């Protein structure tokens, strides 16, 4: 029992007092006066009299009036009766075995981590129960950020960890319970630990439990209390472990038994001694808690053994500190002298005086105590002055404080001292947080969880290797994507490959030549002119930043004299400091840059392109030598990064080559041979020497810079994904079943089953028909019940005991068959045949902390924190293979087990938990991928659903962290699953509406398309494979009724296959009275996205011919928005279509676009047939990319006649124009020789004006150009 629980007389007196009091039911916060029986909130408890007295009755007592003292000079202290009762309940816990068993059962849910020791003698298992994530999740809704500094959805709180440690029975659990209870309001409920009963010397709780501080729980800086199993408990089984074991043996399993979220075998526990409970408590737990705690609270009951306590603190800290390197801040230490005598000197209750007094009393033992002498000598050898115990302690702790807690009998003093302890904890946490912020090592909630998982992995493998904070930060806080950060990454890569066989000086000597060459290359790419000193000064801050960061954070800490150093409080000097190496690195880089610039000058001739010559020097004279030299064994593939291009060190890598290296866009353009407008051919890898002889050439396809973006999103929905596939197949059929649907999109984002479809279409380049076949096979194999799962009741027990309805192995085998077992989603060696068109694909997943993750086959820059984490590790070792990404996105809770990705040590759940409709992820990703996009919105956003019942009323579904469930609770969750899938389908519709509602009013509605199949009934469950065929047929029937919409979607996508590329811009000064005096001429071409001579270009030509006009050719309509003065048509003549179909070539020739205002938007439409016209990719837009003409809002009607003598028919092109400047795509109406037929218009409130353009196909000397005559006429007179 941590604090004396008191004698039985006190408890009996209080019990009789309560029994004899009035039967009036008091309100919360009210107590009854034992003197007058009045119930009020101002009742106080007297510690000496053992009575409750109101304000009127308190002075009526003689002892109170005369301020008499009790034996031991203890005063009559007035304590609020409610507070006194709280303290009494803590100090007087239930003693019956039944009640204590119930308390321990409840406390099992608060376990954070611990060790499971199998009965079969195998190695102990370290188990993480997910308590940290659960505590964060339970307070997420009540948390209101003080400052909104990150995107919505990111948990930016910065938690602090306070660890309570000490000997068994010292009172750790009691202190935590007192702190929590005294800070909890009457209407709040917070979990607290189990307090040991009086007279029991067996440890109370096992392992480490975690509790939340009520005061900070809903703030930006929550504090968590860790209750560690008692030290020196030996091998005695704690009561909590005993009750837990008894419940496991019981015939009826307990549904609330917590299940671990992750497990790790303790590899080092290979002997009986190492596998013992005592070894784990004294060696493993201290390392973990010391490493991450801001405050260590060491609790003891006997102050006479304080010297041995300090010995334990030093030994404990030394063992932990030696096993962590680059630890940013040392913890603060608070020593609690529990159950102190009530009659001590009153000044000793002051923590400041108590600290000074205690440290002074043992100050000189630093020369006598063997433990102190040992560690003092250790620090003296490292030039640190140690002359007292305080100085020794401050080598391991940021500060030391002593707090006394009295024994039972003085509740007011107990409250006072407990609050002083709490205030000390609060101040120490604040100091630690400020210091971490200064060092840029302050972790938010999600970052801390990731560091913890890294530490769990590390210490499960070995206890004798330091845990490196910087190494952990490398995967959690990526190095900034700038030149300095990229130099730093290459230096770190070199350090790891050389395995510390070279020091900092040698590493940066080797780097200087490569860095200088990258500066030369970058300066020529950016056309930076000037001498070497002018150019070098622009890069100097990046070089300094790289060297300083490497010396301070990445090179192992060391002192001048010893071989192995330890991070600690106090000044120290590293052998290789930034100041010592700065000048040398600067000089080496500068003089080598001068040499390279002179070489560039010597090799240049008047006709040479400077960038090409610089690239050749960089590749042949520097890189070929550098990577061959630093690899030592000739394996340059070891130098590879997924976050920086190791060819130029200036851009993130995007394009994977067959050798495994990944280059940025600029390097692809520099070292590849241009084979068309959108592709480059690579003859070899510039990082590898003479790779031309080793590999066949391969081509890299690029998105045209002046083309717009096309986005496809796919909802999750289990086997209902067949609906999405049928929608895609119907669009593909409209394209004659010859063009793969995914070739018409630049970005495809999917969730769960939608993610699997996205990966099949893009990563595996499957047709929709092949995807359907693969999907049906996958569903048949994946939804395989466990053995006995189909039996009544037995199946229920099996499913709930295993916490998943279906086997994991058949699912993973099916995914490996569908996606291959070895191919990576991003990077890795590839055969040239596996290189696919540059279509981006991303899938969503969820980690156990309820944070969304995105896996992709691409890279992009992002300088802000998002509501999800974009997963891009540094190297191939931690990348996901395609089948693993499919498994991670579809790990539906309660259906399949979570997916554990061993290389990244992460557990993934279904992406639908956060983004069942991934439209918001897709919207953010396309903006990050193409930040300089010419248009404000994509050409098209197509969002596909998996079916829904529009007549079902939507009930808000609260999404939370997946629960750690027992058997019965899991069975209930399966029942709930049948309802959730219906609501999920409606939530997808709501997600789309929310997205559309946030779009500006001027965004064209035709660009944003949601396609979902309405059902007459609720959609079937996610795993009901038996109903998949019925659902598929329902989708086919509905799609046949929506054939007109499918046709328009297909033609809209077809139009985006063409884009405009400007060649040059000129102005013409005309003196003609008919033409405006100043015209802007934009010269350029309409181009096709598909490669020249490709099958896709040929099939596109056939499709246009089949879908086009019956008696005339399709054409492009080009005009200036709000004006028809210079409108023109460009026909897709039979000759052009013939070349497309039979030669795979598309050539419209050079086109001049004439504009009156260079700030106006230009419109280019592909007019395929009557009533079918759609904008080409990237239009409408301002061709000059200047400031938009926001003030220009024309509203007029014009009628224009374009003559063409070779054709007897006319076309009437009708625009519906709105008051706010918006306009629909033009309507194509056939006119006879007699003129315009009657036109019926249905006007809406905004549609007040129209513009009509008559194309008379009879007057132009060429079929592709038209002479324009115009006249204006009011619509009301037309």
UniProtKB/TrEMBL annotation:
Classification via CDD domains: Bbox1, Pat17_PNPLA8_PNPLA9_like
UniProtKB keywords: Hydrolase, Lipid degradation, Lipid metabolism, Metal-binding, Zinc, Zinc-finger
Bilayer-spanning residue ranges: none
Superkingdom, taxonomy of origin: Eukaryota
SUPFAM superfamilies linked: FabD/lysophospholipase-like, P-loop containing nucleoside triphosphate hydrolases, RING/U-box
Chain positions of motif GXSXG: 750-754
PANTHER family tied to this protein: CALCIUM-INDEPENDENT PHOSPHOLIPASE A2-GAMMA
Active site, renumbered: 752, 910
Low complexity bias locations: 8-26
All copies of domain RING-type, residue ranges: 645-687
PROSITE patterns the record matches: PNPLA, ZF_RING_1, ZF_RING_2
Biased composition (Basic residues): 242-251
Native organism: Periconia macrospinosa
InterPro entries according to UniProt: Acyl_Trfase/lysoPLipase, P-loop_NTPase, PNPLA_dom, Znf_RING, Znf_RING_CS
Single Gene Ontology BP annotation: arachidonate metabolic process
Sequence motif GXGXXG, residues: 716-721
Residues spanned by motif DGA/G: 910-912
Residue ranges of the region described as Disordered: 1-31, 236-260
GO terms for cellular component: membrane
Database matches in Pfam families: Patatin
Keyword field contains Zinc-finger: yes
PNPLA domain: residues covered: 712-923
GO MF, one example: calcium-independent phospholipase A2 activity
Protein name, per record: FabD/lysophospholipase-like protein
